[in-house]
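Action item from last meeting closed. Structure (62 res):
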């Protein structure tokens, strides 16, 4: 039909995706700035509660 119309639609879609990505980046940056800083002796929140060593078998294997 009209090759220019589809090209404009693709460009608009690309621009919308870029704007959404930039908004997410700005939100993450703002969240990171307001997050409290960890002290050197504090445990890592990602590893908190994990136990080293062999893990129990999952429920589907029992």
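Sequence:
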């Amino acid at each position: 039909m009209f090759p220019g119309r589809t090209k404009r639609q693709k460009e608009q879609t690309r621009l919308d995706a870029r704007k959404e990505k930039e908004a997410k980046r700005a939100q993450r940056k703002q969240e990171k700035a307001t997050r409290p800083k960890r002290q050197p002796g504090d445990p890592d929140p990602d590893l908190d509660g994990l136990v080293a060593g062999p893990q129990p078998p999952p429920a589907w294997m029992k």
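Note appended to the action item: The radius of gyration is 23 Å.
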